[in-house]
Amino acid sequence: MTSITETRADDPGLLTRIREKFTRSFEYVGELTDLAIQTMQQMRRGPIERPLLMAQFDQIGVRSISIVVITSAFIGMVLALQTAYALEDFGGKLFIGTIVSLSLVRELAPVLMSLMVGGRVGAGMTAEIGTMKVTEQIDALRALATNPIRKLVVPRVLATTIMFPLLTVVSMALGIFGGLIIAVASLHLSANFYLRSVIETVKYNDLASGIGKTFFFGFTIALIACYNGLRTSGGADGVGRATTQTVVSGAITVLIMDFFLTKLFLLIF
Hints:
With 269 residues, the protein is mainly α.
């Protein structure tokens, strides 16, 4: 029977585990950066196969509309209700359009859209590429002198980078419309007053800041999803682990990037 002393001797220790965790994290970031460089190089080497790109536009953009519609509309309605309730004693009804529009355009619409759609899209990409990896289809592509990055990664990264800003615009419009419904139906404000306050509040720099973030969000989420798919191993169980890691890593990365991009855009605009 193993003694407690022997068990403790086999334990690498807290500091060792922390160091190994940091080492793996830096290796992950380094390999992800290398994949990003290779992807950019492949994008510059001529036109991409149009059928592959159009299929990704449909998968990422068109099939994500339902998620964007439901999420954005109800977030706008909840935001309007909470604003009216919190500022009721201070005449908060008059600022519904201002608060809802600014909150959605600058932060909520880009971040929530990226989290919701990114989780769906990223998990799908990782599962698809991961399945190809464990069934040796990617090795078959290499045997046919086909670059897997150009064939699999580039269309997905490019489509996600393009579609995320477009979906963000839809999310902003639907969120503001959700706020309009509450402002008219529950708070008894006129639609003209609400829309006028939105138009007077939202400026070019607000739109540029909110939409600009999603180019980075889309590129990063697709890159993480493809990378995790390409390094999948261990059969079906490995595909599940890679998919989970993509969802978690993508969400954390979006939230961290949002802070730094917000600081950057505040300085620029």
